[in-house]
Amino acid sequence: MLDVRALASGYQKIPIILGVTFQVADSEFVGILGHNGMGKSTLLKTLVGQLPATGGAVRFTGTDVTRAPSHKRARLGLGYVPQGRQIFPGLSVLDNMRMGAASAGLGDDVIDEVIEALPRLKPILGRAGGVLSGGEQQILALARCLCGRPKLILLDEPTEGIQPSIIDEIIDILLALKTRHRLTVVLVEQNLEFIRRLSDRVLIIQKGRITGEIPPDHLHDDALVAEFVGMSAH
């Protein structure tokens, strides 16, 4: 579904992503693990088209999208949930979801499907996004993305600042979407338990390069995680 070849990008003249290559199959969940400053968020922004590629290629569902604008990638089914959620705080939950549908050229009918998958949102549809808890805002950010009917979602640090019970709920939501709708996910995260429970494969990123792969069930092993990433499993 996603084929990334020797991808390079950065900010102005500062290179950050230095020749990243990886593939993601249909209905696969791929985790990308690394310390802060290793290029994880920059990689996702490049894949979604918010940053221009300076080298390499990105193919999505067989289409070369390396130079395509973000809205074209969204229409093809590439979704993005950014770090910090970036919902519209002054809009209601429902209107945030409408914005997600409109960005993909879809009508309000898709919203009912998303509410069925995320029933926590049903009693708060009229509430402003800015007054929600951090966990509710993260679920809303996911809902807004799902209203575009994505085939693949790029998730950037979805557990940041969220209580454990909501983290478990997000895991259950994503696994259900994978089973029922064959959703595909590329997940950037530093919460090792979250990434372990969701990922089919975990790629290691260091200084803008994919340097290896670690089996998800090995993320409990402090010594192995430290060897690959320099992070503690606990």
From TrEMBL:
GO MF annotation: an example: ATP hydrolysis activity
Name this protein carries in UniProt: ABC transporter ATP-binding protein
Domain named ABC transporter: residues: 2-232
Keyword field contains Transport: yes
PANTHER family in the record: HIGH-AFFINITY BRANCHED-CHAIN AMINO ACID TRANSPORT ATP-BINDING PROTEIN, HIGH-AFFINITY BRANCHED-CHAIN AMINO ACID TRANSPORT ATP-BINDING PROTEIN LIVF
Keyword Phosphoprotein: no
Biological process per Gene Ontology, one example term: L-amino acid transport
Keywords carried by this UniProt record: Amino-acid transport, ATP-binding, Nucleotide-binding, Transport
Organism ancestry: Bacteria, Pseudomonadati, Pseudomonadota, Alphaproteobacteria, Hyphomicrobiales
Pfam families xref list: ABC_tran
Family membership: Belongs to the ABC transporter superfamily.
Stored InterPro entries: AAA+_ATPase, ABC_transporter-like_ATP-bd, BCAA_Transport_ATP-bd_LivF, P-loop_NTPase
PROSITE patterns to which the protein is assigned, alphabetical: ABC_TRANSPORTER_2
